[in-house]
Amino acid sequence: AVDREWWKEAVVYQIYPRSFNDSDGDGIGDLQGITERVEYLDDLGVDVVWLCPVYGSPMADNGYDISDYRSIHPEFGSIEDWEELLAELHAHDIRLVMDLVVNHTSDEHEWFQQSRRREAGYENYYYWRDGDVNENGDPVPPNNWGSFMGGSAWSYDEVREQWYLHIFDEKQPDLNWRTPEVREAVADLVNWWLDKGIDGFRIDAIHFISKPEGLPDATGDREPTGVELYGHGPRIHEYLRELHERTFANYDAMTVAEMADTTVEMADDYLGESGDGLDMIFHFEHMYMDNGPRGRWDPERWGDWELTELKEIMRRWQADLTDDGWNAQYLGNHDQPRIVSRFGDDDEFHRESATLLATFLLTSRGTPFIYQGEEIGMTNAEWPTIDDLDDPMTIGAIEDLIEAGEIEGYDEVREFVEYMTRDNARTPMQWDDSENAGFTDGEPWLPLNGNYPAINVEKARAQQGSIRQYYRRLIDLRAAEDALVYGDFELLAPDHDQLFAYTRTGTEGTFLIVLNWSAEPAVFEGASVDTTPESIVTSNYEESPRDPAGATLRPYEAVVYRL
Ligand code: TEU
């Protein structure tokens, strides 16, 4: 049997602070801006806020490059503002989960400054290596690994006169977890925040912390080069278990680890007491469905995915995770395209498909993570020139393609970028139809999506049957129905290529969820449902079929039945 836990029953809302709400008119969202909107979050019905990084940072990667783990970046406010936000959230029974970024620091962190000067105790805080020289006598990096932000994963440091490893930006040097003092320092900062009363951490890119002995060259063609060698490396379980024992084990805190390339079999070794003590994992299997053969930034293939594949991925995770594990359910976040543009239809069936996605997220087994703006159906935006983009990962990928001679300029990949760029998720939150959508009185740091007069919170709150209202209804339903949280999941009609249908069975009954995940009508067949539904609990259309067997569902029709 599965243990009951508050974080299994919770609905999480992810906030990208830069883009949520600006209280002081500098064009950048901030902590006071979030505090002003706690009522909004309460009204939506969410239980936990996951706050993306707000720490001291030179902002080379919007805060995922941390120079001071124990401070708040002035653009976001002060530590007092943070205390006030925490108190306000807790006063509304909303918990706060912070972002833990410890695969790397900023190069402006004092640890890196001390390490580059070889100060005693800090020599091995990072991966330092001498380089090689090629046949022309030019210096070349110690191995062939590539960076997620384009180019080599190594940069030369003039101070230390050695190369350092950075699998992300050159301003994000990788911490060397082989050094015991690094692991201790990380545990200290985790406890420092937990002692301040936070309710857990989302742990960034943590599958990358154990690099293989000798840092060998990679031979595969996955991008970035080397990712298969340093992902889920040799000592990962040792490091995570140790961190857990030193920190989380002593608190009532939830953890969700971002770990691309995790399979459900691997998850068992990470999750729960039988694993490393982690509570949940963000796996990436559904994020890869529409990627090219070389990975996400391969413009050779993008955008198409099969519903049958999504169903099989979800079935695997929902059904095969053992009792010691728990799923983290998400369709989007600050690194991914907008979910209605990627998995739904952001045009003709905008409302229908956005509510279908909500139905899936909130009725499947695992803790649902809603990314800001999903609840009003925010869409991908337009990025006419490379200069309009902000995301270093997208820009790095385009530069790599140009450098490799695969493309001559941005125009050749514009359509691909407009689908895939992380900037899509980062355009400011659309609160109302006033100038800058009520996000700021100043000049927004990233342009708003032009559709904000039509898609915004104020409109959604007023409108009967809006996406926003539907989210609220589903969140309430989940809170009221044990079977939707703890119930078993069974996939029906696995081969149906338009319908995603499943049951959730708990001790007090069974729900049947039928989703027509397509823009065409679909007939519900190929599944034997023994019981005729007792009632329709919720639907995103009026007058959905009372008995789904053999019935036709309209485009993106989503119905929750009680059997
Ligand atoms: O993202 C991590 C990340 O990009 C990889 O883990 C992932 O393997 C890849 O996207 C799969 O295609 C996190 C943050 O969410 C992101 O915003 C940061 O830029 C990054 O870490 C560096 O901190």
UniProtKB/TrEMBL annotation:
<dbReference type="Pfam" id="PF00128">
    <property type="entry name" value="Alpha-amylase"/>
</dbReference>
<feature type="domain" description="Glycosyl hydrolase family 13 catalytic">
    <location>
        <begin position="14"/>
        <end position="426"/>
    </location>
</feature>
<keyword id="KW-0378">Hydrolase</keyword>
<protein>
    <submittedName>
        <fullName>Glycosidase</fullName>
    </submittedName>
</protein>
<dbReference type="GO" id="GO:0004556">
    <property type="term" value="F:alpha-amylase activity"/>
</dbReference>
<comment type="similarity">
    <text>Belongs to the glycosyl hydrolase 13 family.</text>
</comment>
<dbReference type="InterPro" id="IPR013780">
    <property type="entry name" value="Glyco_hydro_b"/>
</dbReference>
<keyword id="KW-0325">Glycoprotein</keyword>
<keyword id="KW-0326">Glycosidase</keyword>
<dbReference type="GO" id="GO:0009313">
    <property type="term" value="P:oligosaccharide catabolic process"/>
</dbReference>
<dbReference type="InterPro" id="IPR017853">
    <property type="entry name" value="GH"/>
</dbReference>
<dbReference type="InterPro" id="IPR045857">
    <property type="entry name" value="O16G_dom_2"/>
</dbReference>
<dbReference type="InterPro" id="IPR006047">
    <property type="entry name" value="GH13_cat_dom"/>
</dbReference>
